[in-house]
Amino acid sequence: MRLVLVAALLLASVSFAQPAGLPVFDLERLELNPSGKGSLVLGSGELLPRGGFRLSVAGHYERNPLVFYLDGVRKGALVSDRAMAHVLLAWAPLRWLELNAQLPLVAWQRGDDLRTEQLGTPATTGLGTPVFRVLLGVAFGRTELASNVARFNDEGNPRS
Length: 160
Hints:
six-stranded antiparallel beta sheet, disordered N terminus, 6 strands, 45% strand
């Protein structure tokens, strides 16, 4: 766990990888399921078993996730290429409770020079918006075929 924290601090810049001249927003669109129950990219309502713990790292690449247009004319890509790493943590201290955390890390990104449009280039590395979740199991099936229902609350605000 210490290694993950040290790597996150070394790879991340204070700028949070946000291009200058833009309002603060979260560019990250991929939201993963830290418990991995059902699917990695879609929560199924299933919780980890009591005492279950999962720590994982996932990565992905994006091409042109943020392109700037002015009057219908493409001026360039603020972010043209982007490699991400996600550190995911899930723990179920009780049968009906699961705690999740997701830390997206911008491992590398680049964009076009749009200073003529009063827009800066993004930082090469940085942190995404950390997300913390509390999932409460509100109904449990009696068989494996019955579906489970979980109510979740997540918290994550883009940093300025």
